[in-house]
């Protein structure tokens, strides 16, 4: 089974910027104010404005060739797709059973009772929870200081993997750094697909724009 961990570099060519993009959406906000539980408690309207903008940005984006290549690979081989991205571009390219370890822009969560539902394009802190009625609606994303989702499934997948691939994410920053170390400890070959080397401890790497290197890598596997 091929275990593929994707990060922001997968969706960058679709117009969804990485954390470090100069002039991008993230650069215009203080992450402590919009991506932490404390920030949400202090100013929920600001947080919803930020995620409404991200949701609109993602809704206007289209999957690129790398998304489509991963969906094609998954249709032909046993592949576990784990993403740190909160967009749905993999699913829109045809991928299935994608594990969103940092949540989804398309999801809403009640901060009071924990209910989850599909988010509208525009959300407000005044939106009532459909389960308990509380005005405690928040985006169903994992903020800094919160636990990523699906860690047990990820551990089980890493234990079964015959190849670990990190795509568009740094191999020196957690969780990717921890996952590659787990794979290496199990004797699983590791591969980095990235714009440039991240400095992580990978057995092999291919570098360049995701829309170019990922289709080429998939073509090679399926040849």
TrEMBL record:
Reported cofactor(s): Zn(2+)
Molecular function GO labels: histone deacetylase activity, NAD-dependent; NAD+ binding; protein-malonyllysine demalonylase activity; protein-succinyllysine desuccinylase activity; zinc ion binding
Xref: SUPFAM superfamilies: DHS-like NAD/FAD-binding domain
Binding site for Zn(2+): 110, 113, 129, 132
Keyword Zinc: yes
Reactions catalysed, as given in the entry: N(6)-acetyl-L-lysyl-[protein] + NAD(+) + H2O = 2''-O-acetyl-ADP-D-ribose + nicotinamide + L-lysyl-[protein]; N(6)-succinyl-L-lysyl-[protein] + NAD(+) + H2O = 2''-O-succinyl-ADP-D-ribose + nicotinamide + L-lysyl-[protein]
Subcellular location: Cytoplasm
Top EC category: transferase
Main location, first listed in the record: cytoplasm
Record GO cellular component, one term: cytoplasm
Binding sites annotated in the UniProt record for substrate: 51, 54
Annotated residues for binding of NAD(+): 7-26, 84-87, 168-170, 210
Record domain Deacetylase sirtuin-type: where: 1-223
Entries under Pfam families matching the protein: SIR2
Cofactor binding comment, as recorded: Binds 1 zinc ion per subunit.
Record-linked InterPro entries: DHS-like_NAD/FAD-binding_dom, NAD-dep_sirtuin_deacylases, Sirtuin, Sirtuin_cat_small_dom_sf, Sirtuin_class_III, Ssirtuin_cat_dom
Catalytic residues, chain numbering: 102 (proton acceptor)
Keywords: Cytoplasm, Metal-binding, NAD, Transferase, Zinc
Function of the molecule: NAD-dependent lysine deacetylase and desuccinylase that specifically removes acetyl and succinyl groups on target proteins. Modulates the activities of several proteins which are inactive in their acylated form.
Domain remarks in the Swiss-Prot or TrEMBL record: 2 residues (Tyr-51 and Arg-54) present in a large hydrophobic pocket are probably involved in substrate specificity. They are important for desuccinylation activity, but dispensable for deacetylation activity.
Record's protein name: NAD-dependent protein deacylase
Species assigned in the record: Palleronia aestuarii
